[in-house]
Amino acid sequence: MERSNLTVTLARQCYPQAEEHGKIYFHDIGDYLTREQKLEVVSEFGSIAGITQKSGWQMIEPDEFGDWLNQRDPFFDTYMALGDKKDKAAAEIFDNYSRGVETSRDAWVYNYSESKLKNVVEEMVDFYNSEVKKISGLSVPKEEHADYIDFNTQKISWGRAIKNDLLKLKSHTIDRSGYRTSLYRPFTKSNFYFDNNFNNMVYQMHKFFPQRDSANLVICLTLAGTKGFSVLISDTLPDLHLVGDAQCFPFYLYESNEDQSDDLLSQGGSGHVRKDAITNDALEHFQSAYPSSTITKEDIFYYIYSLLHSEEYRERYADNLIKQLPRILRMKQYGDFVAFAQAGRDLAALHLNYESVDLNTQVTLGGSLGLRVTEQGVKGGQDADFTVTKIKPAKRGEKSKVIYNSKITIENIPEEAYDYVVNGKPALEWVMERQAVTTDKKSGIVNDANDWAVETMDNPRYPLELFLRVITVSLETQKIVRGLPKLDIL
């Protein structure tokens, strides 16, 4: 259920000559309530006086940050920043970070089928260039050129940047190296056309993944001010909406050979050199906490990943994480640092390898096909039996059983698997939503999850097996998170 930011405000006029200035009183009825639950709360109070009678008012005043509600912990700012693009002199852990790729035309540049994606991109670019040719041949003033643009949504999705290119009469070509793999949504990869001309904003992603074979890891977390805090690691290009509006922190930075500097460490592919994204300041910061122990930048990277999963960290600093980027505290004991770093490695292994972890064998597969589940795969049936259109619950609100297709049901799903939430909903529900056949309303472009299963994974059973693998990921993630040390902060 999504959170609705709705308030009812009652105000009365205050007079300048009054001995006492106005006060603000607040009553919170709770988050994530249904319409019926909200009406029930209002009915119980009966009136504004009813809240007063039940001592339900809280007087609120702004703190030093100007926060009236959800006041942040001021001590949070004493911890080291993940990154800081405003204060160049501030010590920070990452030398650079970036939002995920924002396309403004997902249907045109994402598709489960690489061949279909290439056809769509080719038709889009051809149409765009035909518009350039048409506009360049007009005999009307430039100010009127925009009036002649063909806004047929089945030909292209216009955005501000590409429209400006058109009006400047810029032709574009297809960048064959731009066909990549992207982590589009949690536990959902897709073929992707990565191109600065046809993606609205690529931000710094060309410095994280400059080429198809550029190895990297990025920790993507929810941008402050958007939906509930989430974090997910990726080894490929992340979409902006991977975890809300994603800010991504890389392990490596890539620079072109022309931009080489003294601290470049290793070759990162043709035309690029690779360096650590974690700063030396950050390494010294952690080494100073444990002077008799060895700390590496890799340790710090995985320490951060697990710390951002810590339930205690998220609860203690919830009001900070709504409004600012995370800051990273240090543990008093080196042993706790090591435990967090190892947990980060374990979490990363689960989240990066979600397509190959063992299937959950607690479930049973219903239907007449006689299917059975092993840790390695689903046995029985023919390839055509596993085509998916839309995975849905057997009944509204039921979690233990879902309908995979007309031939297969998934039963005895552990309900605790739904407790692993990323980007606003359970990981399993992301699989249910994305392993489907969808048609974009404006363009008519079809995106079929079965294409990824057959063309990329060479496994028509992939959507079903993915669901069972993500059950494992969800349960194991919670197990690791519950085992994290308490925050004994230095």
Task: Write a structural description.
The protein is α+β, with helices and mostly antiparallel strands and 490 residues long. Among the domains are: 1-61, no CATH class; 98-259, no CATH class; 364-480, no CATH class. Helices cover 29% and strands 16% of the residues. The protein is built from 14 helices and 25 strands. The protein has helices spanning 35-45, 48-53, 106-109, 114-136, 160-167, 205-208, 280-289, 297-307, 311-316, 318-321, 334-352, 427-434, 449-456, 462-482; strands at residues 24-26, 58-60, 80-81, 98-99, 110-111, 179-185, 188-193, 218-222, 231-234, 237-238, 246-250, 252-256, 266-267, 272-276, 327-328, 364-366, 372-373, 378-379, 392-393, 402-403, 409-411, 421-422, 425-426, 437-439, 446-448. The chain has a 4-stranded antiparallel sheet with strand order 4-11-8-9. A hairpin with a 2-residue loop joins strand 6 and strand 7 (188-193). Helix 8 packs across helix 11, helix 11 (334-352) packs antiparallel against helix 14 and helix 12 (427-434) packs antiparallel against helix 14. The chain is globular and about 70 Å long. 33% of the residues are buried. Residues 262-266 have low confidence and may be disordered. InterPro entries: Type_ISP_LLaBIII_C. This is Type ISP restriction-modification enzyme LLaBIII C-terminal specificity domain-containing protein. It comes from Marinobacter psychrophilus.
